[in-house]
Model the fold of this input.
Amino acid sequence: MRCCKKTDTSRNEGLLPFAWLFMLLLLLPLTVAQAENIHIRSFSLAATDKGYEMSLDSEITLNATLEQALEKGIVLYFVTKFSMIDSRWYWLNEEVARSKYRVGLRYYALTRQYHLNHPSFVQSYNTLNEALQALGQLREYPVTVKAELKQDADYFASIRIWLDLTRMPKPFQVEALGSSQWSLHSEKLEWRMKLPTPEQPFYYKDR
Done:
C-alpha cells in the first residue's frame, strides 16, 4: 500500500504574514507618490538691483473631489513658500529671507470660466487645464530679506507648495480633516546654497 507524504503546512502558514508585509512595503512608495499631486519642475533665485526674486514652474493636478468642490463655487487657495535659513552652531537657526505667495482658484458657473485671484490682479481662463498651467507658474516674485545676508555664507533653503485648507469654509474644513482626497501638496525641496549674484543666479531643475 502506497503512503502519501504529509505536507508540513505550518511552515508555510508562518511565512504568510511576512509575505503580506513585503507586498505592503512594495505598495507604500506608490501610495506616497500619489498623495503628492504638485510637482515642482524648476526653481530659480536671482539677484537684482532691488534685492532677490524667485521664479518657478510646477505641475498641479486636481482629483475628482477637488474638481467637484470648484464646481460648487468653493475657492481653492494655493500657497507657495520659500525660506532661507542661517544655520549657526553657536545660536538658534534664523530665517533670514522668505517669500510667501497665495493664489485662489475659482470657477464661475455663470460664465463657465476659471479665475485665478492673485494678490493684486485677476486672470480668467476658459478651461481648468489652462488655469492650472498658469497656477503652476510664478515669475520674478520678490523675496523679503529679514536679516543681513553675507555673500560668502552657506544657507539652507527650502520651497514647498500646498493647498491651504484653513481658507476654506468651516464645513469643508471638517470634511477635509484626515481625508487624503483633500491633501494636496508638493514635496518640500531643501538644499544648501550661497547667495546668487547678478551674473550667476541659482537654478534648480528636476531631472
User: Anything to note?
Assistant: Residues 1-7, 9-13, 15-35 have pLDDT under 50 and may be disordered.
